[in-house]
């Protein structure tokens, strides 16, 4: 959805409007004026670079940042040696933070060569006071810091930064506002994420997301559906509905509706061929949702259902509010309803107090559930979460040894399951030219498996029936029948 407001018609010598999003369009126009001045002086447009560090929601936010930069007139660049660089950070695990600090060192080097360069940091990591403190003390070359709640104010903050010569810091602790209808530059023309809710109320004891993303807020159904209709009109065929726990969508709206009802309505929008969603919490996954998935041709045959641990004792300490039996019963129901469903998961190893017996329970669920793939994580202590203060933190070498065993098991199962569809002819959404072989296209099946098949750039963004000829590890090689 690109902005259809003519920025050149905005009177930038007047006072900025108070209401949103008009206020942000005013500041985009201001930035555009600055960009034109830059162009006059330098004989070229200023360049900008956006980097996403986190999850799909973080990536969707980055598309909004890029949309605003492009509206202001920036030339987007693949190189970090740009005039404006923004990192959209993640803090879910310690290594996500470390990556940011590491790369800031490199950026500092670029800035020494180009002193007019501006460096901005936003996203989840910036919602942590200790991070902002550290940046203020030891990373003075950063020009702009803002968080997750005021990302819609990026144009205004950018305008300020372009003319300021000291660090701008603007972090909000909370917000109940949802501001949409700003420019978005989608990474793909034919598929798009759609935020259906923001924040999280679950407070899993290891997780920092509720602290950095705030309380759960669902968007109004009609606004979501209007956005999807607009995307369909723009040529989008696949959407991914995004939220930290989509299964609790709509509970707090003035006219409560369920996630399953939202899915049903989204599936009726002409032009939308595929619907995915992320993430489902096992405690809220309803029979209604399973039935809607089963009965819809548009809802993809893939469910990401994070397990976290197979031990009921650990799940309780994690505050996940389901147990091993509940999880396995869900898997059984899902498999009974949809034999072709790909099931994927997230697992944390080394949560405080995890014993060898607890870990064996996780291995047991992995063997029983037969995940098509699993993301495995070493527990990372997040300051401020209840788990960080728990006793019995698991020694690193013990956790690492378990992690390796789990990974091996997960990979063996995934390898065994891959290839199950060989010989069938199935719809594949062509997504891009194959990076190794330009004669091939790379696409995905409904169950999210990757397929490479012969084709050309004109076929991208459409769904093709492809015969799955062979399976090479984790992808299929196919042919058009
Ligand atoms: N809302 C989603 C998960 C978002 S975070 C859900 O509830 O499933 C993505 C994944 O990161 C989580 O599923 C979890 O496996 C992992 N994760 C979150 N906090 C972590 C921590 N402190 N240490 C290690 N992994 C963590
Ligand atoms: Fe974190 Fe739990 Fe919320 Fe997921 S549901 S974002 S793991 S607190
Ligand atoms: Fe990371 Fe924030 Fe997503 S902490 S996982 S980017 S919600």
Draw up the topology in text.
Elements: H1 22-42, E1 47-52, H2 56-72, E2 75-76, E3 84-89, H3 94-113, E4 118-123, H4 129-138, E5 144-146, H5 154-163, E6 168-170, E7 191-195, E8 197-198, H6 209-213, E9 217-218, H7 221-233, E10 238-242, H8 259-267, E11 274-278, H9 287-295, E12 302-304, H10 312-317, H11 324-337, E13 342-349, H12 356-369, E14 373-378, H13 396-417, E15 425-433, E16 440-444, E17 450-454, E18 463-472, E19 475-479
Parallel strand pairs: 1-2, 1-3, 3-4, 4-5, 5-6, 7-10, 10-11, 12-13, 13-14, 17-19
Antiparallel strand pairs: 8-9, 15-16, 15-18, 16-17, 18-19
Helix pairs in contact: 1-2, 1-5, 8-9, 11-12, 12-13
Bound molecules: S-adenosyl-L-homocysteine, iron/sulfur cluster and FE3-S4 cluster.
Structural descriptors:
single chain; 481 residues; alpha/beta; 5-stranded mixed β-barrel; binds S-adenosyl-L-homocysteine; binds iron/sulfur cluster; binds FE3-S4 cluster
Question: How would you concisely characterize the structure shown here?
Answer:
With 481 residues, the protein is α/β, with parallel strands linked by helices. The chain is built from 13 helices and 19 strands.
Rg (CA only):
23 Å
Overall geometric form: globular
Could you tell me the mean pLDDT?
A: 96
Number of helices: 13
The overall strand count is: 19
What percent of residues adopt helix (DSSP H or I)?
25-40%
Unique ligands: S-adenosyl-L-homocysteine, iron/sulfur cluster, FE3-S4 cluster
- Enumerate the strands of the largest sheet in spatial order, edge to edge or round the barrel: 2-1-3-4-5-6
- What structural class do helix, strand and pairing data support? alpha/beta
The fraction of residues in strands falls at 15-25%
Biggest β-sheet, characterized? 6 strands, parallel
Low-confidence stretches: none
The CA-CA distance between the termini, in Å, is 35 Å
């Amino acid at each position: 959805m690109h902005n259809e407001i003519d920025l050149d018609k905005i009177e930038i010598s007047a006072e900025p409007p108070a209401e949103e999003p008009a206020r942000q369009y005013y500041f985009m126009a201001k930035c555009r004026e600055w960009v034109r001045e830059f162009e006059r002086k330098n004989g070229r447009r200023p360049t900008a670079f956006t980097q996403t560090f986190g999850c799909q929601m973080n990536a969707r936010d980055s598309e909004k940042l890029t949309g605003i930069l492009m509206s202001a007139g920036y030339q987007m660049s693949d190189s970090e040696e740009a005039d404006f660089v923004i990192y959209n950070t993640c803090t879910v695990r310690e290594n996500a933070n470390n990556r940011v600090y590491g790369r800031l060192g490199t950026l500092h080097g670029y800035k020494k060569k180009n002193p007019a360069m501006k460096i901005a940091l936003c996203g989840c990591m910036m919602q942590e006071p200790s991070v902002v403190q550290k940046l203020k003390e030891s990373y003075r070359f950063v020009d702009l810091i803002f968080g997750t709640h005021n990302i819609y104010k990026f144009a205004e903050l950018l305008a300020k930064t372009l003319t300021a010569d000291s660090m701008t810091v603007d972090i909000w602790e909370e917000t109940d506002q949802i501001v949409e209808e700003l420019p978005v530059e989608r990474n793909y023309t034919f598929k798009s994420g759609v935020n259906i809710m923001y924040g999280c109320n679950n407070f899993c004891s290891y997780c920092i997301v509720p602290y950095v993303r705030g309380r759960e807020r669902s968007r109004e159904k009609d606004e979501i559906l209007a956005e999807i209709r607009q995307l369909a009109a723009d040529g989008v065929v696949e959407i991914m509905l995004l939220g930290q726990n989509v299964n609790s969508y709509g509970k707090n709206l003035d006219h409560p509706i369920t996630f399953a009802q939202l899915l049903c309505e989204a599936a009726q929008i002409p032009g939308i061929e595929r619907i995915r969603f992320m993430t489902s919490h096992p405690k809220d996954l309803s029979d209604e949702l399973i039935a809607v998935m089963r009965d819809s041709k548009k809802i993809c045959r893939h469910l990401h259902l994070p397990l976290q641990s197979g031990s009921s004792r650990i799940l309780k300490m994690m505050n996940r509010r389901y147990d091993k039996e509940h999880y396995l019963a869900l898997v059984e129901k899902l498999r009974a309803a949809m034999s072709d469903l790909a099931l994927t998961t997230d697992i944390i190893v080394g949560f405080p107090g995890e014993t060898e017996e607890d870990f064996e329970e996780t291995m047991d669920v992995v063997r029983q559930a037969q995940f098509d793939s699993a993301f495995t994580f070493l527990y990372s202590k997040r300051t401020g979460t209840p788990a960080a203060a728990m006793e019995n933190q698991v020694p690193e070498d013990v956790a690492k040894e378990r992690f390796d065993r789990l990974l091996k098991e997960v990979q063996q199962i995934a390898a065994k399951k891959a290839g199950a569809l060989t010989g069938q002819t199935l719809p594949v959404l062509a997504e891009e030219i194959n990076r190794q072989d330009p004669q091939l296209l790379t696409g995905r099946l409904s169950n999210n498996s990757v397929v490479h098949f012969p084709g050309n750039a004109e076929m991208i963004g459409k769904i093709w029936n492809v015969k799955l000829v062979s399976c090479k590890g984790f992808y299929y090689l196919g042919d058009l029948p």
